[in-house]
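Fold this complex.
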Amino acid sequence: MMQLFDIIASAGLWAAILRIATPLIFGTLGALLCERAGVLNLGIEGIMTFGAMIGWLSVYHGADLWTGLLIAGIAGGVFGLLHASLTVTLGLSQHVSGLGVTLFASSFSYYVFRLIVPLANTPPTIVPFRPIDIPGLSTLPFIGPAFFTQTAPTYLAIIIALLMAYIIFRTPVGLAIRMTGENPHAAEAQGVNPMKVRYGAVIAGSALMGMGGAFLTLSAFNSFFPTMVQGRGWICIALVVFASWRPGRALFGALLFAFFDAFQLRLQTALSGLVPYQLFLMTPYILSIAALAVMARRARVPQALMQPYRRGER
Amino acid sequence: MRFERREHRPLYLLIVTPIIAVIAALALSGILIAIAGAPVLDAYWRILIGAFGSRLSATETLTRATPLMLTGLAAAVAFRARLWNIGAEGQFYLGAIAVAAASSKLLGDLPAPILIPLLLLIGAFAGMVLILIPLWLRLRFSVDEVVTSLLLNFIAVLFVSMLIDGVLKDPLAFGWPQSQSVSDHAMLPKLIARSRLHIGFAIAIGLAVVVHFVQSRTVFGMQSRAAGLNPTGAIFAGVPLGRTLVKVACLSGGLAGLAGAIEVMGVKGYVTTDLSPGFGYAGIVVAMLANLNPLGVVFAAIFTATMFVGADGMSRGLGIPTYIADVTVALSLLTMLIALFFTQYRIRR
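Structure:
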């Protein structure tokens, strides 16, 4: 029991939570934006992988960290454009198109990476984002080291979450996005172009996914290796349901999830040898499934999610 | 530019579509090969030689196609009923580990004619059990099964890793996490001597024919199709939707579990966590390339296996990363999607 308490009371745990949550916040917000406009984007796992790869590669070749993050975002947007062309213009199955994008984006990432970086025993590294001490706040006891010594992209993720909540619920653009996700025909009658809204949401959402992936290589780690995204994209899709398609709750959900993840990592060290470590590694995935089961019924799904929209066709 | 739905689809279009899609995918990855600085036609020629140039490589390609046929069938039957089973990878591993466990702990002493069919059934059953979890969540809590079946892949592989690190660990493997081997007489007979091609290949083709027959000639096949085309309409027409989905899920999960069982009993003899180089995911592409047609799955699986096996030799010869095979296969899924669209719609200006 004392051990459990020690884990929870350590500032290291809380700092880790924010770090673990960051890629999830980016990814969940990205998926949420797509779904609010009525497009399920299962390309997320691949887009995050590509973002992680291209962000790292840019910095490895001399770009600065912010440029790397930007390039990852643009690359994510390009994959979003691909997904939108298939699902919005052609109206193909969003499930299958998303899986296709994931398979293509991740294998393409590995291909490009191997082409440029030959096989080596120790993977090449870059200098990642350094933690920023926020003046005044970082010196506070406990709270300072826990919450105010993160790297810049973590602060950016939180700002984007708040900004997105504002845009979706308080601006005309947000209203257009929500209407398109609920009823594109009604939206069109109100003078909104559902096609344009969907394209915009999928491209912007996918850009966030790419940046979430880039966080892994530019901030959390300093190198790229295949399978490093490790299902985080799928967890983001589950978190969107958990968040009932609300950015504020997405932020909360990602932090809650990261809390369990950081906690199990420490518990794993404390209990090593007693319990197979694989059981701990399973918990994030089990938690995601449980979150889906609990929230799926209560959540109000955007009504037109996964429905292709064609003018004059119902 | 507008799209107009075609009144009827000419038959030749349905046959030509996959071929056009594959050629388009090969052309696109040809660009990537060219960017890498290698001669494109030479690269594809080497892939073909690498996959079929000798007796050894040809049997190796067909051996590799076997699990792909089964996971492809698993995806095809599920997708046709719009059951998005993306969990074939996990079902594959569960089928594999169930066979290893049953053979090494319980049944290893049975004679081969009883043991082999029994183990195949056990493998299929394990796959079924795993897919019933997402199906139950869908029917009971209306949770979309895509993410749940996918997350279960990670859980299944970790579960297998736990077993081969624990109770099923082979003490003779020098500490390497590897399951105990299945008994010698549980290994599938060879189809061709002095090769790895085993009878599982024939079983997979046989099952493709059976599934084709079930889908086109039985009430269940009709019901599963109706469930996929229009779930609400199917209920009005008196199709028991829930029960149909359970049957479809069992068939799909069973095929994926069987793929794992056959890979263990036909090739490896034991389970490691790299038993499958993504057979479950590649099965999705195989099913799509076949336009969800069970007989088409056989050819799509052989194409996919050709890419994977052939890319190894090409990679050694030209220094192009083997991942080009995955890229081509994934691209062919996307080009196939677009090609299929144009069998249903035409462009009107």
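The two ends of chain A are 60 Å apart (CA to CA).
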